[in-house]
Amino acid sequence: MTQFLPANLLALFAPRDPLPYLPPPQPKHVNEDCTLTGVGMYGHLFEDPADTPQPVKCPSRLERKEAKRAEKEEHQKSRIEQELSNWDPQNDPNATGDAFKTVFVSRINYDTREDKLQREFEEFGYIRKIHMVRDVRTGKPRGYAFIEYETEKGMRAAYKYGDGKKIDGRRVVVDIERGRTVKNWKPRRFGGGLGGSRIGAPEFNITHSGRVDPRQYQEKLDRAQRARDRALNNDNEKERSRSRERSRDRSERRRSTERERSLKEDEKSDDRRRGRRDDRERDDDRDRKRDRDRDDDRRRDRDRDGDRKRDRRDDDRDRDRDRKRDRRDRDDRRDRDRDRTGDRDRDRDRDRDRDREREKYPEREEENNRERREEEERGKEVEDNPKEILAEPAPAEDGTVMAS
């Protein structure tokens, strides 16, 4: 088939040019005078091991992370110490008024206003001033305030009954102003404070609302330590009981092995007896099943014969019904044909009688034609002059003309 292809396609199937012949390469010249020696003669040129620097250890990712955290913690600690040395609550320009008549309110809803706070706390006494602390840059409230009362009695009532009060969906914490009344007091931002929500692990943090006694921290720590000791003792007791159970299990396993061996022998004998009995029962079941299948086949054959007879009866009944319907339709068509033939014969007889009468009495036919022409002419006159015809007086029954 390729001989029928055009020249441009035959060029694609043409073989390549043969490879040019090249002479074999000559072996390289080898210097017979050259001898191979070791590197022992160059040992004095190597570096002294004593002068070799120690290898530099590259820290891992966890070590770098830990070093970064330690550096950040050290920087934070130095910053807190510097700010704490410059912190003097006694000379704070915002802290004005009597410190022993002032209460500290925290955990305030950020949407709560001063008038709402005054309405909630003025039930304990007359309020002299409310100072809500706000952010210096944004001006938004920071969630705590200082309330100064007129009397120390009002301050004590607010301290006793106002703690845990729910304002705008949040329970506030009420405490005394400790910055100017407690010696060596440090606020939360300098590592102090009395809040128990950020002590450490979740089992040590205090989650309930209201004031927190510092002694509760130690109680929780002691309780957690006792729980750990109890768990450790329980683990030791479990290990001892587990070793006792293990030795008991070994002896019990030995006894159970002997018992199982005897039981297996008994079961083998029982299995042999049971196998012979099962064989007999299997043979009986097979015979019963064979008899049942034979009965089912006979019943199915009878049902099939009954269905065949019933179908034959139904077919005969349908065939008789169709035959009766065809016969009734045939009778109806015959009656209609007969009626149609009778009508044609009757019309033909009437036309024949009319023609015969017309031939017998021609003057009667002329009179009828004349009356018919008069009626047609009168109808034309009524159509041409309907007012004049209607204005003429109609003749009475006795032949007289009635006056209009």
Can you characterise this structure?
The chain has 404 residues and is α+β, with helices and mostly antiparallel strands. The protein is 55% helix and 7% strand. It is built from seven helices and six strands. The strands form two sheets. A four-stranded antiparallel beta sheet has the order 2-3-1-6, covered by helices on one side. Strand 2 (127-134) and strand 3 form a beta hairpin. The longest helix has 147 residues, at 214-360. It is extended. Mean pLDDT is 80; it is low at 396-404.
Task: State the order of secondary-structure elements, H for helix, E for strand.
Answer: HHEHEEHEEEHHH
General form:
extended
- Main beta-sheet annotation: 4 strands, antiparallel
Number of strand elements = 6
Helix content: 55-70%
- Summed up, the helix count is 7
Distance between the termini: 121 Å
Low-confidence stretches: 396-404
Strand content: 5-15%
The SS-based structural class is alpha+beta
Radius of gyration: 65 Å
Could you name the key traits of this structure?
404 residues, alpha+beta, 4-stranded antiparallel sheet, two-stranded antiparallel sheet, 6 strands, 55% helix, disordered C terminus
Summarize the structure.
The protein is built from seven helices and six strands, in the order ααβαββαβββααα. With 404 residues, it is of the alpha+beta class. The strands form two sheets. It has a four-stranded antiparallel beta sheet with strand order 2-3-1-6, with helices on one face.
